[in-house]
Amino acid sequence: MKTIKQISIFLENQRGKLSDIFTALKNQNIEIQAASVADTTEYGILRLITSDQKKAAQLLTANGHLVNLNEVLAIQVEPDTAAFADAIDALTSGGCSINYLYTFHKDSKLVLIIRPANLEIAERVATEKGLTLIQGWE
Amino acid sequence: MNSKYWNEEIETMPRKKLEQLQVERLKKTVEIAMGSKFYAPKFKELGITPESIKSVEDIKRFPFTTKNDLRATYPFGIKSVPLEKVVRLHSSSGTTGNPTVILHTQKDLDEWADAMARSMYCIGLRNTDIIQNTSGYGMFTGGLGIQYAAERLGALTVPAGAGNSKRHVKFITDFGTTALHCIPSYATRLAAAFQEEGIDPSKTTVHTLIIGAEPHSEAQRKRIEEIWGAKAYNNFGMSEMCGPGVAIECQEQNGMHIWEDNYIVEILDPETLEPVPEGELGELVLTTLNREAMPLFRYRTRDLTRILPGECPCGRTHVRLARFQGRSDDMLIVKGVNLYPIQIEKILMQFPELASDYLITIETIGDNDEMTIEAELAQATDDFGMLQNLTKEITRRLKDELLFTPKVKLVGKGVIPQSDGKAKRVNDLRNNH
Questions:
Q1: Crossing angle between the packed helical segments B341-348 and B384-402, to the nearest 10 degrees
Q2: What is the number of structural domains in chain B?
Q3: CA B297 to CA B36: how far, in whole Å?
């Protein structure tokens, strides 16, 4: 599958938790490409894309965090609103629903990290519509 | 019925005579319990016969009985009489753990009703009162136990049952209810229900509350008395001994008289099981003296209390127990429900999404006990929906077990405090002793 790995970390709204995570990554020279924090009143989830997901996951687990690795779509588009809008339209008009998304810039392109309700369908639709999917990262 | 006492002879019996009565009844109870498959072999081994009992001190020769014994012999293993003599059973709070069953003959029920009627009379209730019971009618002894006693007293008895505060408000208002039986936390909740309807609870006809089955402090009692403009009396009972009607405060409100014609009272060190020095704190251990279907000898209640020294100005000679100071095991009483942490642990362990650590926190919020259970997640996820559904499902299963709804909070690794490498399971922040 043309997907990439995303790290999710459970956050229990504790002071210093985020700082612990990013300092650990800094000390190991792991490059953070994208980070997104979603929260409820009770807890949050930090989602991360780094230069070395496997190493980052091992490191954070060893530091006592609850870490999960899962597959998400990474779609590369031109860094403008039109390309962003067209990519989303292509997916949704193709029947995909999107649970969450966040973006970052890389090599003068915009990368959309998308967690669709159904990964297989979304990957097929994206391919059919000619979207550029990034696979792996390394 | 102008007397101060329901049964003056018994209630004011000189100690020496009371002890003679206890010896007679202990002999009789041993005779009955020879019919128990559970006790007969123990008695034989220890040489306990009715004739061998000379004084109350002989109680020290008897084996102890524990809740585990009741569970191990579930349901009828301890019974002392043929089943055709048994007319009713009650069972411990309806949780899914090992229940305990207590059997009653008709005489047991009559004696129980009489003892609780005596308790009601002791706090000033008469046949002119209208007594409304807010306990659940069913396996819990607080329903039928209070019902039959109030009827025995001759009071008009309203079996309104548990829950539905609006209905209680209506009944109290319409019937002119003068006395309520409830757990302390419900006394304040019901008062709030009156206030919501724009009625000041202290302006109602209620002049007396019988409160029990839940630990509460003197300050809580005072607050209940203030809101209701009524007297509130601490009442003690447990299904193993019959139900409500084991001990009650008299109008002095200084310690609960335990009806010693019905029980031999011991206060023992829970470690050594030897008597504590007079007046000191220990575990309450009771022997039934007036029961047939299922007499229990030296039953370990696990409640910690002490005997108040001196005589009570009310004239009753039966000893007074101080407010309970906690438990010698890990049982918790929350919202009137008896529960053990292991019940919660068993539920949590059914969820593969959870790791093994958890912490139960109980605190008083407003006038109510609130329980929060922090459960450690085994794994992270990118999916909020999964966490929310998990929380909901854990809450639902805990509610089925506990009969009230705790707050469930998912936490990450290392959040639950550890002490000496052993996780702390319960954090009871209530101030109710």
A1: 140
A2: 2
A3: 12
Same domain, B133 and B267: yes
Nearest to B384 among A9, A45, A66 (CB): A45
pLDDT tens readout for residues B37-79: 999 999 999 999 999 999 999 999 999 999 999 999 999 999 9
Query: Tell me, what CATH number does B358's domain have?
Result: 3.30.300.30
DSSP state of A117: S
Domain count, chain A: 2
Please write the tens of the pLDDT for every residue from A82-129. 999 999 999 999 999 999 999 999 999 999 999 999 999 999 999 999
State pLDDT tens for residues B362-393.
998 887 889 999 999 988 999 989 999 999 99
pLDDT-derived band at B419 (thresholds 50, 70, 90) equals low
Tell me the pLDDT tens digit for each residue of B249-269. Answer: 999 999 999 999 999 999 999
Q: What is the side-by-side strand order in the sheet with B263-268?
A: B263-268, B282-288, B299-305
**Interface A:B, Cβ pairs < 8 A:** 52
Distance CA B267, CA A21 (A): 55
Task: Clarify whether residues B175 and B284 are in a common domain.
Answer: yes
Supply the range of the domain harboring residue B349: 333-428
Which residues does A contribute to its contact with B (CB < 8 Å)? 6, 8-12, 14, 38, 40, 42-43, 45, 47, 64-68, 70, 72, 99, 115
CB contact under 8 A, A14 and B415: yes
Q: How far apart are CA B349 and CA B355, in angstroms?
A: 8
Task: Give residue A26's domain range.
Answer: 4-70
Smallest Cβ–Cβ distance between A66 and the set B379, B384, B388 belongs to B379
Give the domain CATH number at B130: 3.40.50.12780
> Using the beta-carbon criterion (under 8 Å), do B382 and A70 form an inter-chain contact?
yes
Extract the tokens encoding B422.
């052993």
Q: Whole-prediction pTM value?
A: 0.76
Q: Check: CB of residue B334 under 8 Å from CB of residue B27.
A: no
